[in-house]
Amino acid sequence: MPKFLPVGIQDFEKMILGDFVYVDKTRYIYDMALPLQGFYFLARPRRFGKSLLVSAFEHLFKGHQELFRGLRIEQSGWHWKPHPVVKTDFSSISYKSPETLETDLALLIQQLTEEHGIKSGQGSLPHRFSALITGLAKKYNEQVVVLIDEYDKPIIEHLGKGETGLDVAKKNRDILKSFFGTLKSGDVSAALRFVFITGISKFARVSIFSDLNNLDDISMQDEYDAVLGYTDDELVSFFSDHIDHLAEKSALGRQEIIKEIRTWYNGYRFTDRETRVYNPFSVTKLFQKKKFKNYWFETATPSFLINLIREKQYPVPDIEALELPPELFTVYDLERLKIEPLLFQTGYITIKHLDDILYHMDYPNQEVKTSFLAYLLDDMIRLEDVRLAGTYKRLHLYLRDGKADEFIHAVRSIFASIPYVQISGQDEAYYHTVFYLMLSASGVTVHTEMLTSRGRMDIAAEFDDKVYIIELKCDHSSEKAVRQILDKKYYEKYTETGREIYLMGINFDTEKRSVDDWQWGELREYLDKCKII
C-alpha cells in the first residue's frame, strides 16, 4: 500500500509517524548541521517545504533519533545529543502593527522562559531575547539552536498597500533589526550552536543581513539547489505508486503522465547549476485529487505583488524575457524596492539559463504562468459583464482549431466590456498587455517581444502543430502589421520546426476601443501573394 500523501504536512514528527511520503533531504540537513557552529539563511517561495525543513532541524537537535531511522543521515555517524531549541514561526505572530509585533514577540519570549524555568530578562525586547538564549545555554550546559521560520512575514504582508503599508513595513523591519541584532552580540553568539532562518526575501537593514557576518545565505548556492522541492529522480522514486495510479485513472501511459507533471509543476531553478525542481505542494495535491490544475496559486494569491505591479505600472509582457544581473539578487531595500527579484523569490519567475553576465528569467511552468496572468488580467480589466470573465478561456481553443473569426469576436467582446474609465486614453502598450494577458491566461503558450535576427516580433502563440505570428497595431491597419512581419521575416524562427505557420495582423481603434480590422492566413499564402521567397 502506498504511503499517505503529505498534503500540507509541516511537522516532521507527524510526517514520519503518520507514514506519509517523506522525500529524504537529510543529506542537506547533515551538511548544514555538521559544523560546530552554523548560521544559515534560506529564501524559497511559499508552500515549498521551508517549515518542514525547520521542523526536521528541531527534531534533529532535540536528539529524536527514532524519527530519522531509515533516512540517509542515520548512516552518517551523527551524534544524537540534545540541545535546547528556540523555534519561532513569524507567520503565527501578529504583525498588523509594530505594537502588536513587539507584544507578540515579548509574549513568545516569556512563554519560552517560563516553559524552561529560567530567569526572565528585563527591559527591552532584544535584552529579554538575549537573556533567554544565554539562560538556556547555562541551564542545560549546551549551546542553543535558534530556528526562525518566515522571518519576513511582518514586512511582506504590508507591501503594495500604498505609503501607509510601506510605513508599517519599515517600522516592522526596524523591530526585526533590533530583535535579530541580539544574535550577533558576543555572549549570545558564543551560546549558539546553530541558527537557521527562512523567508521569501532578503531585506536590507535587517540585522541578520547587515551585521551578522557569519550568516551563510544558501538560497542560490549550487550545493543546496534541491534542498527543497522535488527533482525528477525524487518524483519517480518516492511517488512511483501514485504516478501509476494517476496514469490508470487518466488512461495515459506512465511516461506521458510524467511529461505532463513536468509541464505543469516542474521548472524551478534557484542556482547556477541546472537542477530544476517541482513544486512539492502542487505535486502532492495532484496525486491526491488526480486532476491537473493550479493548486499552488490557489492557496494564497500574491496580492502584494499585484499591488506593486499596479502601483509601478510595471510592463507585464516583459516579465517572461527578463535579463537580470546577479547583484539584483543580493539584498532588497524597501526604499528602492524592485519587482523583478521579488518575482523570482516568490516563485513567479525562475532562472531559465545564464550567460557570463546575466540571468535569463521565465515563468517556471504552466501552472504559474496561466494562473498568475489570469489573476493579473482579472485585476487589470475588471469586466463589467461577469459572463465574459470566462470568455478569454476559450481563446486557446479558437486558435488551436483555426477558428479565427470566433477568436476575433471573443477579443472584441472582452475589450467592449472593459469599463470606459479604464480603457479611455490608453496607449498601444495597454492594448498589447491586455491582449497578451488574455492569450496567456487562456492557456496558450505565448511569447511576447521575441528577439529574432531582424528585430522583435510582438507575439508568438505556439501549439504542437502550428504557430501564430501576431503583430499588433493601434490606429494604423492590419495590412501594415502583416507587412512588418513579412519585411522583418519574423517567421524565420519557425520555418524549420515542421509546424504550420500563420500570420495575423490586428489593428485596434483606440477611439472605438476595439479591434478595427484584422487579417490572417498561412505563411505560404502571403509569400505567394507577395512573391517573397
Lay out the secondary structure.
Elements: H1 12-17, H2 26-33, E1 38-43, H3 50-61, E2 85-89, H4 98-116, H5 125-140, E3 144-149, H6 153-156, H7 162-180, H8 186-190, E4 192-199, H9 207-210, E5 216-217, H10 232-238, H11 240-250, H12 254-265, H13 280-289, H14 295-298, H15 303-312, E6 323-324, H16 339-345, E7 350-354, E8 359-362, H17 366-381, H18 395-400, H19 404-417, H20 420-423, H21 428-441, E9 445-452, E10 455-462, E11 466-474, H22 478-488, E12 500-509, E13 514-522, H23 523-530
Parallel strand pairs: 1-4, 1-5, 2-3, 3-4, 11-12
Antiparallel strand pairs: 6-8, 7-8, 9-10, 10-11, 12-13
Helix pairs in contact: 4-5, 11-12, 17-21
Instruction: Please report the distance between the alpha carbons of the first and last residues.
Output: 62 Å
How many domains is the backbone divided into? 3
- What's the average pLDDT? 89
Given helix and strand content, the structural type is alpha/beta
Assigned CATH class of the largest domain: Alpha Beta
Helix content: 40-55%
CATH names the topology of the largest domain as Rossmann fold
Total helices: the number is 23
Give the overall shape, derived from the CA principal axes. globular
Stretches where pLDDT is under 50 for at least 5 consecutive residues are: 451-455
Task: Specify the biggest β-sheet.
Answer: 5 strands, parallel
CATH architecture of the largest domain: 3-Layer(aba) Sandwich
As a whole number of angstroms, the C-alpha radius of gyration is 26 Å
